[in-house]
């Protein structure tokens, strides 16, 4: 079954500090491109000659590398867009308790994720790691780099330039501040509740 582009749950012009023009380019073209390319790869893989698979180069290797890149690009963007549409503030309940336990305070959590976003070339992903029972911010320089096996993503911050350049130029820190104003904590709380059960 082919993958489809997920609709936004909010109006494209409703985010504070992230323009409709940016959302249209980011969601409707870039993210949609990952979904479409993933479908193309899924259709091509069964036809690839597996008997010629090689670590240096083969059609099969190229397709498998692009499969991971585009699948992760799709998934990370879906997490990113799902995280937006709220009014920022703070989470509540079990999520806030876990954040305060793992980071010392909500403010330290925001500082840590923001620093991860400044240090990354692609993604800052907030994830719950069941191996230590903690929430972490993981840096991913590309869609297919930086994920931790077994960790469950709760939200993502896209820091590729396409996410902010139209609105902020090179002022990434200002974009990250705008991101926090638009987080929909109910979505993140729901994701956290699912991993804790």
Would you spell out the secondary-structure blueprint of this structure?
Blueprint: H1 20-44, H2 59-83, H3 93-103, H4 106-119, E1 123-129, E2 134-140, E3 152-158, H5 165-168, H6 172-181, H7 185-195
Antiparallel strand pairs: 1-2, 1-3
Helix pairs in contact: 1-2, 3-4, 4-6
Instruction: Tell me the CATH architecture of the largest domain.
Output: 3-Layer(bab) Sandwich
What share of the residues lie within helices?
Answer: 40-55%
Q: Give the full name of the CATH homologous superfamily of the largest domain.
A: Iron/manganese superoxide dismutase, C-terminal domain
Sheet of most strands: 3 strands, antiparallel
How far apart the termini lie comes to 29 Å
**Topology-level CATH name of the largest domain:** minor pseudopilin epsh fold
Radius of gyration: 18 Å
Question: Helices and strands: which structural class?
Answer: mainly alpha
Could you tell me the mean pLDDT?
97
- Which of globular, elongated, flat, extended, rod-shaped describes the shape? globular
Question: What are the key terms here?
Answer:
single chain; 197 residues; mainly alpha; Helix Hairpins; minor pseudopilin epsh fold; 2 domains; 3-stranded antiparallel sheet; 3 strands; globular
What would you note in describing this structure?
- The structure is a single chain.
- The protein is mainly α and 197 residues long.
- The protein has two domains: 20-83, Helix Hairpins, CATH 1.10.287; 93-195, minor pseudopilin epsh fold (3-Layer(bab) Sandwich).
- Helix content is 51%, strand content 11%.
- The chain has seven helices and three strands.
- It has helices at 20-44, 59-83, 93-103, 106-119, 165-168, 172-181, 185-195; strands spanning 123-129, 134-140, 152-158.
- A three-stranded antiparallel beta sheet has the order 2-1-3.
- A hairpin with a 4-residue loop joins β1 (123-129) and β2.
- The longest helix has 25 residues, at 20-44.
- The chain is globular and about 55 Å long.
- The two termini are 29 Å apart.
